[in-house]
Write a sequence for this structure.
């Protein structure tokens, strides 16, 4: 046979060159069709959304909304309205994700609507700060609850950070090993946190059935008259819903994204909204307004009252599951921005390579994990996240602006879903407010530093991306990574089979 090709399951081909003049046969390995697989269905996609939205906040201290609104009724209205606003955002992102079926979240939408520079600045901020810092703070919370179950004296920083680092490395291994395994982990831990919240909801309903309705009967008594107070309550509630857009980061790995992306976005946000409202009703019914406002770990105190101290120990276990699942979802989705940006040659291309056997983006997973581990070194990274929080809402706003622009520049393109224009406009206005409000209410120089960091990405963009003065400099590194990790290029190929 001439040039026989042996096809492998890993997407490679072994081609044997014919023997000429007594020359020994030579086998060449060609990578063909290496790409991330579409392993995520509706259930795993919905689990990504629910699992990353629900972290530790609903279990620990959901008191910010009640504190700012001043009444039971208004606080529940804000929780429900926050869910509806998130749903508007999720519907808007469903239109974007089915119009431009690339992974990377906001990155490809900004690239198509606003050009390479704006898309790069988003990727720069997301990759270097937002994803690794978010993963670090979630893993630190996980470590705190692991320590609460161990008989440590006090809270020594080194053990806590070691536990957080071990969690990060474990998640990196899981996500590098197999996408299906990472998706299964997400489904399992999402199920665990939903079981905990169902217990809380049912316990609250039982409490109400016993006639403990005094707190809820207060209704809107004591509601704040301050517009800024209501705005701050919305700010707290909307942050509790953050993560509703994560499925758009992995569109290329979603089966039938035209159908499953809109369905998962809607199902995930609606499910979380119902759970958040019912969980808060349960907390209020059991603990009352004073108990809720004075509690530092609401779920634990709720458990002690309803379940008893012996059984209440399960609540920290459920919080551990919740935070571990949120960290997995954050890593799973967050690294795809780096994967897509590197594929567009805005970061070293080798970071977009995919393992030929496991079909996972190992280089970008390792890179992100290393950044997250470095984030553990400072004493407190909470302030870092606070000052970059306005950046997240700024990029949400730019994504919605991209949707409006694409309505004109790609008006003839096929749109499986086209949302009522009022939904993205309302979401855009709220996003702009959440960008400006914290700066006006508490102007600090750290916001300027955060803005300068975002714009500072141009220092690397101009020479390395625009003029590409580094051309050829990374070739030895690329070759080493390819050989060591068995990875190869993964070009974008539309395929919805």
């Amino acid at each position: 046979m001439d040039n026989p090709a042996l096809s492998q399951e890993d997407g490679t081909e072994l081609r044997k060159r014919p023997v000429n003049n007594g020359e020994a046969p030579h086998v060449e390995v060609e990578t063909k069709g290496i790409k991330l697989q579409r392993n995520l269905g509706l259930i795993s996609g919905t689990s990504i959304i629910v699992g990353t939205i629900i972290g530790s906040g609903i279990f620990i201290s959901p008191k910010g909304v009640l504190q700012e609104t001043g009444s039971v009724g208004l606080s529940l209205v804000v929780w429900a309205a926050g869910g509806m606003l998130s749903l508007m955002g999720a519907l808007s992102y469903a239109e974007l994700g089915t119009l431009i079926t690339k992974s990377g979240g906001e990155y490809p939408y900004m690239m198509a609507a606003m050009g390479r520079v704006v898309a790069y600045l988003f990727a720069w901020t997301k990759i270097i700060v937002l994803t690794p810092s978010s993963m670090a703070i979630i893993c630190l919370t996980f470590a705190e609850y692991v320590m609460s179950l161990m008989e440590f004296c006090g809270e020594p920083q080194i053990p806590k950070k070691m536990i957080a680092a071990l969690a990060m490395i474990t998640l990196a291994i899981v996500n590098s090993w197999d996408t299906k395994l990472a998706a299964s982990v997400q489904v399992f831990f999402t199920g665990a946190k939903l079981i905990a919240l169902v217990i809380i909801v049912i316990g609250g309903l039982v409490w109400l059935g016993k006639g403990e309705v005094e707190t809820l009967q207060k209704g809107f008594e004591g509601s704040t008259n301050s517009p800024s107070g209501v705005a701050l309550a919305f700010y707290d509630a909307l942050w509790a819903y953050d993560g509703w857009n994560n499925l758009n980061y992995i569109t290329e790995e979603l089966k039938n994204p035209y159908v499953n992306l809109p369905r998962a976005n809607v199902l995930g946000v609606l499910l979380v909204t119902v759970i958040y409202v019912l969980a808060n009703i349960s907390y209020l019914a059991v603990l009352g307004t004073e108990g809720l406002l004075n509690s530092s770990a609401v779920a634990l105190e709720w458990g002690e009252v309803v379940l008893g101290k012996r059984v209440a120990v399960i609540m920290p276990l459920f919080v551990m599951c919740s935070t571990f699942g949120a960290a997995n979802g954050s890593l799973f989705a967050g690294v795809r921005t780096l994967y897509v940006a590197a594929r567009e040659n805005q970061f070293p291309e080798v970071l977009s390579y995919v393992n030929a056997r496991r079909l996972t983006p190992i280089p970008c997973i390792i890179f992100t994990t290393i950044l997250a581990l470095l984030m553990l070194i400072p004493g407190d990274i909470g302030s870092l996240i606070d000052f970059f929080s306005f950046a997240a809402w700024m990029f949400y706003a730019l994504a919605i602006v991209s949707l409006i622009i694409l309505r004109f520049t790609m008006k003839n393109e096929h749109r499986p879903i086209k949302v009522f224009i009022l939904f993205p406009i309302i979401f855009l206005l709220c996003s702009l407010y959440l960008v400006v409000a914290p700066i006006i209410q508490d102007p600090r120089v750290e916001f300027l530093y955060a803005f300068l960091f975002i714009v500072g990405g141009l220092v690397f963009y101009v020479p390395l991306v625009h003029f590409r003065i580094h051309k050829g400099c990374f070739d030895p590194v690329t070759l080493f990574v390819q050989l060591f990790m068995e990875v190869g290029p993964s070009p974008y190929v539309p395929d919805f089979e």
